[in-house]
Amino acid sequence: MELGELAERLKGGITIGASLSSYTSFGLGGWIGLLAEPEDEGDVENILEYARQEGMEVLVLGMGTNLLARDGGFPGVVIRCGLRFKGIHPTPDGIEVMAGTRGREVLDYCRENGLQGMEFATGIPGTIGGMVKTNAGAFGGEMGDIVQKIKGLSFDGSWRELGRDELRFAYRSSNLPKNFIITRVWLNLAKGKKWMIRKLMSRYLRLKSATQPLSEKSAGCIFKNPSQAPAAKLIEEVGGKGMRVGDAMVSPLHANFIINLGGATASQVLHLIDEIRERVKRAFGVDLELEVEVVGREK
Ligand SMILES: Cc1cc2nc3c(=O)[nH]c(=O)nc-3n(C[C@H](O)[C@H](O)[C@H](O)COP(=O)(O)OP(=O)(O)OC[C@H]3O[C@@H](n4cnc5c(N)ncnc54)[C@H](O)[C@@H]3O)c2cc1C
What we know:
- By secondary structure, the protein is an alpha+beta fold.
- The chain has 3 domains: 3-80, 2-Layer Sandwich (Uridine Diphospho-n-acetylenolpyruvylglucosamine Reductase, domain 2), CATH 3.30.43.10; 88-211, 2-Layer Sandwich (Uridine Diphospho-n-acetylenolpyruvylglucosamine Reductase, domain 3), CATH 3.30.465; 231-295, Alpha-Beta Complex (Uridine Diphospho-n-acetylenolpyruvylglucosamine Reductase, domain 1), CATH 3.90.78.
- The protein contains 7 helices and 20 strands.
- Flavin-adenine dinucleotide binds at residues 25, 60-67, 81, 99, 124-127, 129-131, 133-134, 136-138, 172, 181-182, 212, 214, 218-220, 293.
């Protein structure tokens, strides 16, 4: 299949010469070989077929809110599930959601339709596909608690459905197959009182806004919380708040967030990460593990 034919077949679109920095909340990352934005599952099949024929690597992207994309970019195909790859449909046990639907849109739907169970995700940016893959969570809840089933396509072109009994979720991770793109997710949600759902969501959003730099360019928490103590506390205790390499700075509000002040590069962020790790290791003997995912090539 020629690139022109792919473009004709797609309901969604393709872009050549896009940069990962425009598609990640950190505002970081270099050039993309080919950016493809599917509108439905047929589009995903066609994009993957093209990538296989051309021998191109594939990277799946949601809203890019958990990614540290390197400055050398990604020469392969980036499949971005978002914008038009969305939809929410009621089921007897909750809802069926297309993977590109934003978490915020799902929460709006839950509030309007009196569905409870996902309030914990208020204020977490991301698409449902990305949120399930990373098992996003907060306030004692996580996506793994409510996922009933998922459907998706392996990069080799075979469709799979994975039910509750096959899925395993752990702290910010899941056992989803490698080289697999989630296209639909079924969520188990119970009927609840609208005013209670609204109240809980507002409470969580207030708490999150007061403690996290939500309006800055970041990828959320940089490190997973080790068993000894929250990563933010350890970083704060080694004087990490405000530490800076170029335009990459540890947030003065939340020490486990690195923010891009405007002109940061991924290598500056990685340099800052190394410095934080060293300080924490020296002071507490703790190895901090990344929560953000590093993707793309070095420059
Ligand atoms: C300000 C801020 C606050 C945050 N707060 C929290 C929080 O409280 N709790 C929390 O858990 N996280 C938090 N995060 C991190 C982030 O929001 C979550 O990890 C989110 O679930 C990522 O979704 P995404 O669509 O942006 O995924 P992306 O960042 O685009 O991708 C993340 C991973 O999922 C994969 N992926 C994405 N879509 C699909 C798909 N359709 N099929 C297969 N794989 C896919 C990607 O390949 C990648 O491996 C925060 C981030 C920010 C910027």
